[in-house]
Amino acid sequence: MTDDKSPTRLVGYAPAKLNLFFEIHGKRSDGYHDVCSLCCPVNLYDTLIFELQKSPDVTLTCETGHLRNDSSEIPTGADNLVVQAVQLIQNRYDISSGCKIRLIKRIPSQAGMGGASSDAATAIRLASQLWNLQLTPRTMMELGAELGSDVPLFFISGMSIGYGRGEQVKPVGLTPRLDFVIVKPPEGISTAAVFRVCCADHITDRRFPECLLQGLQSGNLREITAGIFNRLETTTQKLCPRIGQMSRLFDTLGCSVRQMTGSGTAYFALCHHATQARFLAAQLRIFGIGDVFVAHSVTLAN
Known about the structure:
The chain is of the alpha+beta class. The protein has two domains: 9-171, Ribosomal Protein S5, domain 2; 179-296, Alpha-Beta Plaits (2-Layer Sandwich), CATH 3.30.70.890. It has helices at residues 81-92, 115-130, 137-147, 191-197, 210-218, 221-227, 232-239, 242-252, 274-287; strands at 9-27, 33-53, 58-63, 98-104, 160-163, 168-171, 179-184, 229-230, 258-260, 267-271, 291-296. The strands form two sheets. Strands 1, 2, 3, 4, 5, 6 and 8 form a seven-stranded mixed sheet that branches. The protein has a four-stranded antiparallel sheet with strand order 9-10-7-11, covered by helices on one side. β5 (160-163) and β6 (168-171) form a beta hairpin. α1 (81-92) runs parallel beside α2, α2 packs across α3 and α5 (210-218) runs antiparallel to α6. The mean pLDDT is 92.
């Protein structure tokens, strides 16, 4: 049921994320992997526009023209997590009306930047407001976990650390200003494809995020450099040699704190300040290796 006080049109912004740390702690009996992941939301946003409609239909249109090097086709039917999120709310809370959704994509797909998951989390928030459900953050996180492992982290206000499949998340409690330059090459890769060839059982030197957390808290660049890590980078590089090319290019440009985010293929460098990020972005664009973004860490509203 809907309430007369419910809005009829809402706009929401879904941020991207970067993985500053990603380790695999083993393979689970359900086929997933136990992971430890430190995520940082950044100010690269998709936009979602919801409009209430009387019929129960959920319709989605998507605009992606501004991403020059992203050839991925975004599904607009039941395969899209935004549609799944809204339909989950409809079914769980016996909602008889529907909505029209316009999705404006700025976060590249198959990049390891969490665009689809962030869109789903924002869709849950907007659906809760649209139908005046007043869902708590905990309830929304639980709903998000039903849709995907990364969805719950987008209900945390700042940096978060995730365990289990990644869906068991808690805030880190740190809010430093971090500036990044990010490159998304034309190639994309699915998370499933990376995990299929990742040999979790053969990892003998498992890492933990404490060094990175200490570095972020103190601002110690040496500790941050030593602590930043992504177990999936080596595997992804075998599937997408461009990852290695970007690593070498970032090294040539003097980026000491750099790595792939998530399961790739986006690659980022942590910069000393925004001016350096903009300078590096200008240099990277000369090489024409993909879409280049300048971004900084953000704290999200609960």
